[in-house]
Task: inverse folding
């Protein structure tokens, strides 16, 4: 049953799409093309064909009311993969090639084709790249690789104010890497910096001349205190990491996945986009979106409360006590 138009974002609650179903776009990313926003994420609903992995696509004009478009079906890219996963899909629109380019974390155990032995866990540690002529797909997986030869697990997406596209990826032996994409977005071209902190869920925003990078500690499904660092340039140097919320709250149970900057006619709002994971009932995993308190080298995630957003003016208004 279709839902009536909603004006309020309610973090931590079930978020129904216009068809009345809880949005399944976990570990996701958002792009804006024209007047439309597209939200891509991990499809976690029940009853999926286990021979494939799925990326969902939703569209909206106001970031509040979302319409489900379709699921992108991804076949296993490598015969040596076992117990494989696709996580944190992020899509970029390339204005030159007019292609939509999807990056995703592809991982799982790796089976030795000669001995049959399996290197378990996240041994594959690659990114996958898929392309489409339309934002809603179909997307074709064209390759998997290790960016600049490094292991890559959690990935994040950043598009700077000048339109340059970057990939953030977690390189387990070394830390948190930020790298520039090639002109066609099909390759990782240049490393901007390595932040020697072992963090995942990486996200970046450029706000009033300063770059803010956030991430979470490596605690699997369990939440932890997410932290942020700042720099005048993506090449650093980066500051020490500080808490984005009271550490005892473990980021209110959420893990970062993206920072969304809304530049309106009256103000600019930066939104923290996070996931509240429920590993045993993944289809019921929730979202924590909140407007951040940001500026002058400080970033703070307020306590989750219902709030409204006007994407035209850029104004966000928290509703005290949810009233």
Result:
């Amino acid at each position: 049953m279709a839902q009536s138009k909603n004006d309020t974002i309610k973090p931590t609650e079930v978020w129904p799409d216009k068809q009345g179903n809880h949005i399944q776009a976990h570990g996701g990313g958002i792009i804006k093309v024209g007047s439309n926003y597209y939200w891509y994420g991990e499809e976690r609903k029940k009853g999926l064909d286990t021979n494939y992995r799925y990326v969902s696509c939703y569209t909206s004009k106001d970031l509040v009311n979302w319409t489900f478009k379709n699921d992108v079906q991804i076949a296993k890219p490598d015969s040596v993969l076992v117990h494989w996963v696709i996580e944190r899909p992020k899509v970029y629109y390339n204005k030159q090639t007019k292609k939509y380019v999807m990056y995703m974390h592809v991982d799982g155990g790796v089976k030795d084709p000669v001995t049959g032995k399996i290197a378990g866990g996240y041994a594959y540690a690659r990114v996958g790249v898929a392309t489409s002529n339309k934002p809603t797909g179909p997307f074709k997986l064209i390759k998997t690789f290790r960016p600049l030869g490094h292991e890559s697990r959690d990935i994040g997406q950043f598009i700077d104010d000048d339109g340059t596209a970057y990939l953030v990826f977690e390189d387990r032996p070394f830390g948190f890497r930020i790298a520039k994409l090639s002109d066609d977005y099909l390759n990782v071209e240049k490393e901007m910096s390595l932040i020697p902190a072992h963090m995942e869920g990486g996200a970046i925003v450029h706000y009033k001349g300063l770059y803010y990078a956030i991430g979470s500690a490596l605690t699997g499904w369990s939440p932890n205190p997410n932290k942020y660092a700042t720099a005048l340039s993506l090449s650093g140097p980066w500051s020490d990491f500080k808490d984005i919320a009271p550490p005892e709250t473990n980021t209110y149970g959420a893990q970062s996945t993206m920072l969304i900057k809304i530049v309106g006619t009256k103000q600019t709002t930066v939104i923290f986009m996070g996931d509240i994971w429920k590993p045993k009932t993944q289809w019921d995993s929730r979202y924590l979106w909140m407007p951040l308190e940001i500026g002058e080298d400080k970033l703070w995630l307020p306590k989750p409360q219902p709030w409204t957003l006007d994407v035209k003016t850029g104004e966000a208004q928290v509703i005290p006590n949810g009233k």
Remarks:
- DSSP finds no helices and 25 strands in the chain.
- The mean pLDDT is 96.
